[in-house]
Design brief:
Blueprint (H helix, E strand, L loop, with lengths): L7 H9 L5 E4 L6 H9 L4 E6 L2 H10 L7 E5 L5 H8 L4 E7 L4 H4 L25 H7 L2 H10 L6 H14 L5 H11 L11 H12 L1 H15 E11 L2 H14 L1 E2 L9 H6 L7 E6 L2
Bound molecules: S-adenosylmethionine.
S-adenosylmethionine (SAM) binds next to helix 2 and strand 2.
Length: 285
Amino acid sequence: MIHRPVLLEEAVGLLLGNGGKLYVDCTVGLGGHAKRILEANPEAFVVGMDRDPKALEIAEENLRDYKDRLSLYHANFADLDEVLRMEGVSQVDGFLFDLGVSMLQLKGPRGFSFQRDEPLDMRMDPTQRLTAYEVVNSYTEKELVRIIRDYGEEPYARRVAKAIVLARSKKPIETTGELIEVIGLALPYRGGRIHPATRVFQAIRIEVNQELDSLQVALDKTLEFMRSGGRLVVISFHSLEDRIVKNFIRKNLKVLTKKPITPNMEEVRANPASRSAKLRAGGKP
Ligand SMILES: C[S@@+](CC[C@H](N)C(=O)[O-])C[C@H]1O[C@@H](n2cnc3c(N)ncnc32)[C@H](O)[C@@H]1O
């Protein structure tokens, strides 16, 4: 399984720049960033977590050479305080968040991508109850407008929500393909650089996984554990996340990246999924 870690050297360089030993990878995914941390600093210990148990299985395999300096947990990073207490940790040298979805999740069959027709699921953690099917088929029109507008920043949120409600009154919308068809009929524009369903899919994914709330809760919790001089490095993939991260760092930490770091042309060419990445870092005074 290949997931090319985004902004790998930049993220790990900033994180390890304080010469610490205990780092927390809050989104261990398939282990790309964690592996680089463990390679680059032979003294480092990594506590890793992810809400996707499948990703963790692969990470465990990818990181087997480092198992003495690694603890992995199936957890939502919003519960990072519980994880760290379980691990017996009170002082952390650095936290890394590489947000968004991994290749494992995108390649299916959980309905994260609109490239294929799959069941409407979109759960990063398959043990949670709420699915995209439930959002699409049982949220009220008003709730749909709110999430599509606020989480998708879709200017035609009302039209899309209305179309969804009309379509599902005839029969439940069961797959990504059916949803794309409904969205396509509701939106007045076609073509362009991004797929017309991109914003609506983003909105539903954020709702299903409660992505913005979890991020805010987790960032707030890092402060309790970060030692003085400790670092926070966050890679985000859309403006809503980036805004939360920027405000958090400005308010609580010393800003280490005046402007966000973005992938260079070479990285974007090799890994198009990296194109919207923004990295911000802060240090605890
Ligand atoms: C972009 S991938 C990380 C890739 C990883 N850095 C690597 O190099 O392989 C993002 C990961 O974050 C996880 N994730 C997203 N939100 C999470 C949350 N609230 N708690 C825990 N993990 C989360 C996803 O399941 C996914 O595996």
